[in-house]
Design a protein that fits this description.
The complex is a heterodimer of chains A (about 475) and B (about 425).
Chain A: H1 17-52, H2 55-90, H3 92-125, H4 132-161, H5 168-171, H6 174-178, H7 181-206, H8 212-240, H9 246-255, H10 260-280, H11 287-312, E1 316-318, E2 322-323, H12 341-347, H13 349-352, H14 368-379, H15 404-415, H16 430-484
Antiparallel strand pairs in A: 1-2
Helix pairs in contact in A: 1-2, 1-4, 1-7, 1-11, 2-3, 3-4, 4-7, 7-8, 7-11, 8-10, 10-11, 14-16, 15-16
Chain B: H1 3-16, H2 26-59, H3 63-97, H4 99-108, H5 110-134, H6 147-171, H7 177-181, H8 199-207, H9 209-224, H10 232-262, H11 275-294, H12 300-332, H13 346-375, H14 385-415
The chains are: A mainly alpha (about 475), B mainly alpha (about 425).
Chain lengths: ~475, ~425
Amino acid sequence: MDLISLYPTWYEPTVGSGWVIALIATFHVLASHTSVGAALLFAYLSNKAYREDREDLLEFIKKYGLFLMVFTYVAGSITGPGIWYSTTVASPSGIGSLIHSFVWKWAAEWVFFVIEVVGVYMIVYLVGKVDKKTHMKITVIFGIASLATMLIIVGILSFMMTPGKEIWFEQGGFLNAFYGTNTFIQTFMRIAFMFTMTAVVGGIVVAGIKDPAFKKEMARKLGGLGIISTLTGAALFQWYLTAVPDQALLVMENRLPEYFGPSIIGVIVITITYFIVTMWQPKFVIESFAGFMAIVILVLGLWPEEVARESMRKPWVAGQYVYSNQIIGRDVPGMGIKSQLPIIEKIGILKAHPFTPDALRTVNEGNKIQAGEFITMVYCSNCHSPSKTGIRPLHRYFPEGIDQARMEKYVKGVLTTGNIAYMPKMPMLDSEIEALSAYLVLNKKGGQTAINKAIESEVNARNHTALKTSVHTTRTTANAQQEAK
Amino acid sequence: MDASQVLQVTEMVQALQSPGGIPNHPIIFMGLAVLTFALHILFVQLMLGTSLITLWGAFSKAHYWRRLASAMLEVAKVSTSVAIVLGVAPLLFVQVVYDPHWYTSNVLSAMWVIAFIFILIVAYWAIYYYYFQNNKHKDKTVQPKARWSMVLSLVLMLVVGFIMHSLTSQMLHPELWKTWYTPNGVLDYSGSKLHAYNLWRFAFFISMAIPVAGAMLVSYRRFKSVRSDADQDYLNWAGALGKKWIKVGSIVATGLYIAWMMTLPETAGDFATSFWGIIGGVLVLSFALWAQFRLKGEAKFCSYMALPVALVIGLMVAISREMLRYTILDGFFGYNFLDYKIVFDWFSTIHFFATFLIVGGSVLTYFLTVAWQAGQTVGVYTPSPFVDRLGTIAIWIISIWTFLFLAVGFYVWAFR
């Protein structure tokens, strides 16, 4: 059997599975970047506490550490695997390709996670219970371990956009997949933004410092760190854009939401203004203001950034060889991977998919809408929701009154040939084109209600036929037995 | 099922394997999956068991119980963190060799998979809420506040445990996947149902929280008894309670293990009466016998051995559990994970083991030594020159790792 590595589809009609991933990922980025930045800040402060024999700095570490432990380490440690979970259900082949390429890197990252978890408890709970020198050593190890987690994951994130070296396609090899220009620039860029988030979230803790002199010192330290890191990060982002594939730039120019540019500029301006104000007047560092700023960064900065990162990879989801709809669209000789497009062109998507119900493997008048829905779920739903809401709803892409013939012409001329730069090539048999088009037309005209009704009618008719056939077979067998007697 | 139906399932599952293959022999990943699962489940059980003690103490009027509850709350908090972080590893390794099963099972219950994340966060925060409501009291014998949050936490932890159990159970039924995906002829893309479970199996793993918590109490007594400010009567009471929990808990768990084995699906064949089917139950029961004979009097050494013994038993149960999966998926459905396509990558393999053994080994040796000795010290702990040097070595090792990571990257980037 010519089956390919496609899984069932999970369809979330309200926001779409893509946005479920983005929501979890955005929150994780806030939590994880803050944690890593704070770990490095702790290393610096603990070192200073040891050299200058200062209890106040250790108390600050304890307070900030406890705050982080509850709000970012707890949530970060769960939303990290949470990204795996969400991508597993929304994009199983995509995450599978990453897991199988980078399992050892993720395993190495896990070693540092364990160090981090043990370390954060020690940093918080051993203040005042071990000497300052020991605390400093624990904090330095914790800081480097946290940084290591970031170094590792950025290589994998970069691969999602494009393999480190072009020769990976021909030669394979982990090193060629992992390290590239994109990897290094993205690493530095994320380190910069990580300090920005640390400085903002740290403000929530600084707000609680009672001693005005110490509060001023910490507000200025965090403000200075925040200004430098925000400006550096913004400059590195421009550099980063020179290291992404041309295709990604094309998508960025044409497909990103209009709010993306103003939102990013806005968040940079607001953030720098916030740091200047708090450095100038530390009394303005109050919990609500700092908390508000963390939300500003989350909504105006991280959310568009995560959406952009997801969009710019299109039509690929991993390594420029796994399409966003989970189909392998390119040969990778270095890894012995073959494109799955020729198989689909030969037998059609319905016969190539392992989870196609038997009743839908061949399109006919009695299953057309259901088969069309199945094809839509497989080919389209990751990026376009068949519902009224959700991610890039399908119905918005077709004019009112579109008919079957026009839809078939579009599907055949554009989708099956891969004539849209940021969409995958989607091979189909003529019968499958007919089914997909019938579904899309009905979806446009009557929405989900009409679709449900049509599918119910198809299934009832099929069940009725099956029942009749069954009764007929039973009678024939009984008659034959009677005659034999 | 007839032979042709089984063959269809085999072909479907094999088609789902990742075409990129895996970077080393599958048995290595399986070994790591089993080892890390055993560690993960030990801390899950420790978390559940100590949460139960916390709750028991919270609703008790007895002073010793309340003191113990307060101490075990600290263990529950840390165990939750450690259980979560240790759980990442088996989650990683299982999807390397059993990706067709794990991914399909997850997609078919996608809503529950997503819910798992949020329920776990709430459960975790509920523990902290309870902690912050009560940690300011110096007197640990007063009635704690916000007991509801601890109840909520434990209930939600059991819910996430059940979700995980169900996802693992669904992996064992590839013959039902298409039926679950297309109930009554209509495709169900919602992922809103949990389709398979075995309550005996779930209850067995949860019940092991009792002997594991007992082992914790026995170790707690031994660990704290060396401090000059220790209340020996209280600690002896806690130790005796722990011993009782090990014995009773192990017997209960053995009963549930037998019930699990008696309710295995037909596809498991005669696994229940095979060596791997029997050994798990025998070892769980042996924990009770071990406690009866080895935890007499002071038991200075064996008290510290209680948790390692629980780990070894858990490891053997984890191997049995894995053999069961292998028996069903290979023995009945013809999916042998050992046949997975391999695209060797020695660099990344060595890189991981060096990180695991050298970086992880040196840093955790230092961390745990300091934590252990600080916990037994009254006042400020200052390490010996040897322990201090361990810290310096750990810093050097982790720094060299970072340097090499970047240096290799730079070489690849510049010269390839």
